[in-house]
Amino acid sequence: MGSAAHSMEGTWEARDTAPPVVRRIGLADLRDSLVQGARDFEACRTDVIFLCLLYPVAGLIMARIAFDYGLLPLIFPLVSGFALISPLFGVGLYEISRRRERGAETTWTDVFGVLRSPALGSIAVLGSLLLALFALWLFAANLLYTVTLGPDAPVSALAFARDAVSTPEGWTMIIVGVGLGFLFALAVLVISVVSFPLLLDRDVGVATAIRTSFRAVVQNPLPMAAWGLIIAIGLVIGTIPLLVGLAIVLPVLGHATWHLYRKVVTR
User: Fold this and answer.
1) 65, 95, 101, 266: most buried by Cβ count inside 10 Å?
2) What's the pTM?
3) What is the dihedral of CA 265, 34, 53, 129, to 10 degrees?
4) Three-state secondary-structure class, residue 241
5) Is 103 strand, coil or helix?
């Protein structure tokens, strides 16, 4: 019970302190965050690329399994839904940026420094929430296919693509699916835009981290909308060459997220 309370509310000493202060930022701050993120990536690109190659490999394996087991309609939701859990995968990158910010020497093993963080339980709880949203997105996508083009599995990828773009049911699936995907992505943005970096930086608990992230979006609607669009475009670009581009896009966006957090939340 004590561990659960710590994960949700943070350290006892922090409960009487004022909540983190959220600044207003502009579009220029997004650009500066991306520039600093690219510099962090440049400083440790070899190790980071090696680690981030695991993500596209895992994505390709999941897509292959889905194809083999007749889950072809779920391949696109699996790939696109990666954006819902990408903040969790960026925690190790935040740690590298945090160490570089302090002037400490960094190596790829510093990614595992998160495991020594006092806020590890809080990070795990918030990560579980994103994984639950990812699972709910897959359930919604599968239900949408069943209602429109299902319930039988498509006979081939070509037949599925043809039905999706040449029938009213297929266009219904596409339009409603894009709308649902937008709502899920918006929920994740509101919950996690600064939550994980905040938990890594301060042991404040999940509840405070989510509230701070929500305030960051409310006080900066245009910049945060632009940030969400940048992430979406970046992930799309990263998935084009068989997801391999994610090995570059993810670390740049991950490092940039840390610097965005520094601009949004005062120390």
Assistant:
1) 95
2) 0.83
3) 30
4) coil
5) coil
Question: Could you tell me if 83 and 166 are in contact, meaning their C-beta atoms sit under 8 angstroms apart?
Answer: no
Mean pLDDT, 10 residues at a time, over the chain (267 residues)?
Answer: 52 58 95 93 68 64 66 81 84 87 72 77 93 94 91 82 90 94 94 94 90 96 95 84 76 92 91
Number of C-beta neighbours around residue 216 at 10 A: 27
Q: Where are the beta strands (DSSP E) in the chain?
A: none
| Residue found under tokens 């990614």 | 111
Q: What Cα–Cα distance (Å) separates residue 189 from each residue in 84, 195, 241?
A: 8, 10, 25
Single-letter amino acid, residue 251:
P
Whether 204 contacts 10, CB under 8 Å: yes
CB of 87 within 8 A of CB of 195? yes
What are the two backbone dihedrals, phi and then psi, of residue 11, each rounded to the nearest 5 degrees?
A: -70, 150
Q: Which residues contact 212 (CB under 8 A, 6 or more apart)?
A: 19, 20, 22, 194, 195, 198, 204, 265
**Is the peptide bond prior to 151 cis by the omega test (within 30 degrees of 0)?**
yes
Q: Residue 242: left (phi > 0), alpha (psi -120 to 50), or beta?
A: left
Query: Which bin fits 128, alpha (ψ -120 to 50), beta or left (φ > 0)?
Result: alpha
